[in-house]
Amino acid sequence: MITPVMTLAPEAVRSAPAGTSVWEKALIEFVREASAAGKTVVISTEVKTLTPEEVARGLSLSRSTVSRRIADGTIKSVKIGNRHHVPYPEFRRLWEDQMTRLVDASIDDIEAELFRDE
User: Which domain holds residue 10?
Assistant: First the structure.
């Protein structure tokens, strides 16, 4: 027997106003249908993970750089089978660190461009 599953993307949940969103209505309907069929509903969460290739693309790094950083512990990962996966919160931390360094390195040029005397 196949167990029905409902998956909600974090982006859809975060961006929708509480109480009226499409995902909330769909979830309620899913629970009602399962209950009517005498099924137990289990709600769980999973941390979204990214492959090293996806992390490399998202950070504009090479795949080998990401692999080296995973190996030396700079990038936290989990092993699923024999492959490393990077939890989304870790990717987000890396992205924010990279953006902060970029802004810090560019701030003088940005200020000069914005506030130069004309």
Answer: 1-45
